[in-house]
Amino acid sequence: MSALFYIGALLIVIGALCDFFGALGLLRFPNFYVRLHAATVGIIGGAAVPLFGVALLALGADFLPNRYAIAGASFITGVIVLLASPAGSHALAYAAHRAKLIEWKPKVDHLGEVRESD
Question: What are the strands, taking DSSP E only, across 40-92?
Answer without folding.
Answer: none
